[in-house]
Design a protein that fits this description.
This protein is α+β, with helices and mostly antiparallel strands and about 90 residues long. The chain contains three helices and three strands; from the N terminus they run ββαααβ. Bound molecules: zinc ion. The site of zinc ion has 5 residues, from loops.
Amino acid sequence: MYTFILSSMRFQGYTITVDDVLSIDDICRRIKDELIVSLEQLNLQILVQEARQLKLHIHDYTLVEILSNEQNQYYICECPSHSTNGEEE
Ligand SMILES: [Zn+2]
């Protein structure tokens, strides 16, 4: 099992565990989707909107490094200065 934790202003600490990781983008999408589903179940509509805006990424590890160490916990970051979506230089 791999553990991923959100490092986020509003959603700090949200954690998921998964059996496999297909790619960095895949895991960023999955933690965001699960967060949105969790918030929707609680009917927290404003937080759902905020969660949808999250642009997530992992900086300190490559996919190969993650796959080679299941015991570690990996933080997924939302800081805008590291955005990988290319909207900010
Ligand atoms: Zn970052």
